[in-house]
Amino acid sequence: MTESHSPHTCKSCGNTFVGNYCNLCGEKMLKPVDRSFKTFLSNILVAITFADSKMFKSMWLVLSKPGFLSREFAAGRRVNYLKPLSLFFVLNLIYFFFPVIQLFNASLQTQLLSPLNKWYQHLIALKLLHMNMSVSSFQLIYDLKSPGFAKLMVMVFAVVASLPLNLLYRKRSRYFTDNVGLCVELACFNLFVNAIMLSLIATVFRVGGLLNETVLTITFISTNLYFLLRASHTFYHEKGWKLVAKSLVMILILKLSLEVYRTILFFVTLWSM
């Protein structure tokens, strides 16, 4: 009897069925090809959705039970939730309409706060000379172009941040795409908490001036440490001192991943001008 004609137990409703889809709830039986990176990329192209009850339920799980949504999807229990990629693109769209907080979208002024700012200034000077343009005009055009590229490239952050997870949790029997999925959930968390909500707070209460680099860094570390501690326990079943140690290591990796993402964004934007 072939695999497709063998009976399977649905991970969502417990029904026994034959074939690739549960005849009661429609849950799909996961195969190795469904976890391939090629399939992951193809899912990005079709990850467009409408805001419905699944979106709010999934967003609440990301906030209240970090790692749970990724664990459900990795286990094949998917029909009850919105795809993390779909949730990510919805939040991404909302964020780039109101880019008050410079998290994934980075203006030229924010980019020049990078440790590579001396090199950036040299490249900008060469570009200004080549384009025969003033600094103010260059900055205006850069800040108009950058959000468009940032919206398309946030997945770079998720992929880069997921790479160390394959080493930190290599004994946890997780696929590469499972780790990327967790980082997509983390990106959703950051978009909602550290971008959208902070932007709303800054706008409504007019406290944007108080959200300096120090305050934003402390907020970023605190919120992401909460997510990583909860998610590592839920998704990888990590406990004790290893849970704390690996979460702290991941905080440093996230900061580095964000810098890598912003560096790539800088060069893509600069190249397009």
Please give the largest β-sheet: 2 strands, antiparallel
- Name the strands of the widest sheet in spatial order: 1-2
Low-confidence stretches: none
Total number of β-strand segments? Answer: 2
- What spatial form do the alpha-carbon principal axes imply? elongated
Written as H for each helix and E for each strand, in order along the chain, the element string is EEHHHHHHHHHHH
Q: Summarize model confidence as the mean pLDDT.
A: 84
Rg on CA atoms, Å: 21 Å
Structural class: mainly alpha
Estimate percent helicity.
55-70%
Topology:
Layout: E1 7-9, E2 16-18, H1 37-45, H2 53-64, H3 68-75, H4 84-97, H5 108-111, H6 117-131, H7 135-162, H8 165-168, H9 176-204, H10 213-236, H11 240-272
Antiparallel strand pairs: 1-2
Helix pairs in contact: 3-9, 4-9, 7-9, 7-11, 9-10, 10-11
Descriptive account of the structure:
With 273 residues, the chain is mainly α. The protein folds into 2 domains: 1-30, no CATH class; 32-272, no CATH class. It has helices spanning 37-45, 53-64, 68-75, 84-97, 108-111, 117-131, 135-162, 165-168, 176-204, 213-236, 240-272; strands spanning 7-9, 16-18. It has a two-stranded antiparallel sheet with strand order 1-2. A hairpin with a 6-residue loop joins β1 (7-9) and β2 (16-18). α4 (84-97) packs parallel to α9, α7 crosses α9 and α9 packs antiparallel against α10 (213-236). The radius of gyration is 21 Å and the shape is elongated.
